């Protein structure tokens, strides 16, 4: 399959919408990461997403809509907590899990009786959703297990030849995926930290149970996606919690080439490829996935990353970083 690269002109958005309406797969930017979209109401189209990504079939997809008016037919009811979150954070990086209606194909919900839905904030995503006038199922546009793509080149690296088109809308603003919160139960559960912070959620809802984190073999996490190895480049990732520079000085020389993701430039050994994490939580989030991918390209055998705290947006970025490391971190 020849993957078309499209721009964000009205003509190209209309082309992308036509491809989606015809049952095709189109990657598009959102404010969080790029997604691969398919008509969410067409089970055959959605099934193709799983093949293109190599995604396990028990991992459900997020449904994207342009307008809150599109929500009612997709769910059995809109719980009070969901309504409060929609009012506060939509459009934006928040996916709300609710009981699904019979319109949602099995492939979208992966056999669960719920569906995760969001209105993205990205203008390009919204224009596409309006142009096709239907809900669009879209997981992150990476090969399953890899870091999510935050620009069109990374989508193309993973999926060129496997999807119909990619809309190049530049780099994503947030850089980590949406927050996933389950509102199908009386007490809301945070299933994946993301662009809307835990602090913002509790301000609106009061109690929110954190249901993510390290999952050992045999446990069934509430969000199926959290049980898989995720966000991982080819190089091994090591998160260093203390004396970052000292740890890298001691350990990097054991390798031909080491990658370093650091918050401040230091005296790193000459075999290190160094990337600046940034100087704010917003920058850490925006840079993480691209740094992991570019260090792979640079031939790093191992990536040493400086740990960050769990406050605000850092909770999401740190979650992705530790999962990229297979939940192993070292303390020097
Ligand atoms: O920011 C994002 O959310 C991006 C952009 C493209 O919108 N999408 C994204 O999709 O990250 P994906 O498929 O890579 O991650 C979706 C996560 C997975 O962990 C999945 O298990 C969880 O959301 N999820 C989806 N539907 C669910 C449901 N009904 N119940 C529990 N978890 C669900
Ligand atoms: Mg993903």
Features:
332 residues; alpha/beta; Rossmann fold; 2 domains; five-stranded parallel β-sheet; 10 helices; binds threonylcarbamoyladenylate; binds magnesium ion
**Sheet with the most strands: spatial strand order:** 1-8-2-3-7-4-6-5-9-10-11
Q: Roughly how much helix do the residues carry, as a percent range?
A: 25-40%
Query: What's the CATH architecture of the largest domain?
Result: Alpha-Beta Complex
Content-based structural category:
alpha/beta
Highest-level CATH class of the largest domain: Alpha Beta
Radius of gyration based on Cα positions: 20 Å
User: What is the CATH homology-level superfamily of the largest domain?
Assistant: DHBP synthase
Secondary-structure element series: EHEEHEHEHEHEHEEEHEEHEEHEHE
Q: What is the domain tally?
A: 2
Q: Helical segment tally? A: 10
Write the layout of secondary structure elements.
Elements: E1 4-6, H1 10-21, E2 26-29, E3 34-39, H2 43-53, E4 62-64, H3 80-89, E5 94-99, H4 106-109, E6 114-118, H5 123-132, E7 136-137, H6 152-159, E8 165-167, E9 179-182, E10 189-192, H7 198-205, E11 209-210, E12 236-240, H8 244-251, E13 258-262, E14 272-276, H9 281-297, E15 302-306, H10 314-324, E16 329-330
Parallel strand pairs: 1-8, 2-8, 4-6, 5-9, 10-11, 12-15, 12-16, 13-14, 13-15
Antiparallel strand pairs: 2-3, 3-7, 4-7, 5-6, 9-10
Bound molecules: threonylcarbamoyladenylate and magnesium ion.
